[in-house]
TrEMBL record:
Keyword Coiled coil: no
Entry keyword annotation includes Cytoplasm: no
Domain FAD/NAD(P)-binding per the UniProt entry, residue ranges: 7-319
Gene field: gorA
Cofactor(s) essential for the protein: FAD
InterPro entries for this protein: FAD/NAD-bd_sf (IPR036188), FAD/NAD-binding_dom (IPR023753), FAD/NAD-linked_Rdtase_dimer_sf (IPR016156), GSHR/TRXR-like (IPR046952), Pyr_nuc-diS_OxRdtase (IPR001100), Pyr_nucl-diS_OxRdtase_dimer (IPR004099), Pyr_OxRdtase_I_AS (IPR012999)
Source organism: Pontixanthobacter rizhaonensis
Binding site for NAD(+): G175, G176, G177, Y178, I179, A180, N181, E182, G263
Single GO BP term: glutathione metabolic process
Cofactor: binding details: Binds 1 FAD per subunit.
Protein name: Glutathione-disulfide reductase
Active site annotation, chain numbering: H437
Amino acid sequence: MADYDFDLFTIGAGSGGVRASRVASAHGAKVAVAEEYRVGGTCVIRGCVPKKMLVYGAHFAEDLVDAKQFGWDIGETSFDWKRLRDTVLGDVDRLNGLYTETLENHDVTIFNERAEITGDHEITLASGKVVTAKYILIATGAEPAVLNFPGSEHAITSNEAFHLDEMPKRVMIAGGGYIANEFAGIFHEFGAKVCIVNRGDQLLRSYEPALSDRLLKISMTKGINFHFNTTFKSITKNDDGSLHVELNGDDDQTVDCVMFATGRNPNVKGLGLETVGVEQGKIGEILVDEYSKTNVDYIYAVGDVTNRVQLTPVAIREGQAFADTVFNNDPKTVNYDHIPSAVFSHPPISAVGLTEGEARNQLGNIKVYQSDFRPMKNVVAGRNERGLYKMIVDAATDKVVGIHMIGPESAEIMQGFAVAVKAGLTKADFDATVAIHPTMAEELVLLK
Ligand SMILES: Cc1cc2nc3c(=O)[nH]c(=O)nc-3n(C[C@H](O)[C@H](O)[C@H](O)COP(=O)(O)OP(=O)(O)OC[C@H]3O[C@@H](n4cnc5c(N)ncnc54)[C@H](O)[C@@H]3O)c2cc1C
Ligand SMILES: NC(=O)c1ccc[n+]([C@@H]2O[C@H](COP(=O)([O-])OP(=O)(O)OC[C@H]3O[C@@H](n4cnc5c(N)ncnc54)[C@H](O)[C@@H]3O)[C@@H](O)[C@H]2O)c1
């Protein structure tokens, strides 16, 4: 029997890697993890968490205006980006400390450096140290996809957005997905003039089109500009630091910041996958089976690096299932059906299950219920912004197969309703539930 330094070596201390490492250790394994940047990974350090804190900050912009209609005279207001940025980064430091502590409390050895697979069961750290492990877990996440054209080096990605020295006055965002729409809302509420440049004509392609259309309408009313079917030709830096952007399909623009939000690619460069023959897919993603095992018997991969579903709760589940399967003799897989999700745009979008189009294709006979309403808070505030909820029902079984919402707090509302859809409840079950009045969520039990 070979003797290894560790039972498990995890590369990457993000959402998936931290969960897998601490659970494997709790199951009795001797575990080490390498992290090249900061323990916590994308979600905690430069993703979901700091992003949501900025979203909270951004909400004040409209609340402070709306306050007047609710009787409050607030006087002149101003926004201090550096104060918010430093508060957020301070909390990120706190969370980074907590994640490190969790690993240490579980006796996981942490190497704060880059790791690479250099041979069978062998990992080499940036410092040159070589260690061996019975199992290797690759949990290296994904990195922003950057566009390549003359001057593209002047653009930033979401990684840099959290550290900006100043709030730019004019921001151009490339892409029409999650990050583009979330940051368009954030920058806009903080006073920047924002435009989105999208190569196609559809925002948030995986979402119900009626909702992305509603977000587009609301965003345009707020003053966010959209350039559809448009691509980048070049960026030139002007003497005053501003950026001259040449576009294909639209007029040139001068802005202070260009941000790429054009997807995230699996983080596989320089990992040594070829050395041990780990199979990869079209964009480099690591191919795994339902137990997150690669074609190499002792190497597993979880999270964004496998490009299954790029969401933190999914990476965490995959990490947990891996640790239970390999170190607790309790084979577990992740069920990818009915994963709820949200876009923290202004207002937010949330969804679970099939869109109307998907349901029609898969089930044929469906019923669609819809509520298009103006939330009470918006009515009082004099804000002409409507919410839209859609419910998709399988006509044959009466099962609710999809719920789609845009409106205030829709992400918070969705979490509870996702349980009902996951459990396979019917429209009749929804109808039998007494409403909580007055709420926005009650719309979903009152759909006729
Ligand atoms: C701006 C933004 C907002 C997001 N918002 C949300 C959200 O609201 N909700 C949601 O569910 N998801 C959100 N996501 C997605 C979420 O962050 C990811 O799905 C999640 O972090 C994936 O976890 P992971 O463990 O696969 O990888 P990660 O959390 O990315 O962790 C991978 C870690 O591996 C490290 N690493 C990489 N290579 C090496 C190496 N060779 N050696 C050592 N270490 C290495 C990296 O530094 C990183 O810390 C967001 C992402 C971004 C970018
Ligand atoms: N609220 C959340 O849960 C949340 C928030 C942010 C990010 N995320 C995760 O992170 C991932 C990455 O976010 P994202 O917004 O970068 O990706 P995305 O996949 O949501 O959107 C990418 C956008 O870039 C465009 N695009 C892709 N390649 C392009 C190219 N070569 N030229 C021009 N445009 C191009 C696409 O058409 C699309 O509009 C998401 O898929 C999501 O899983 C989740």
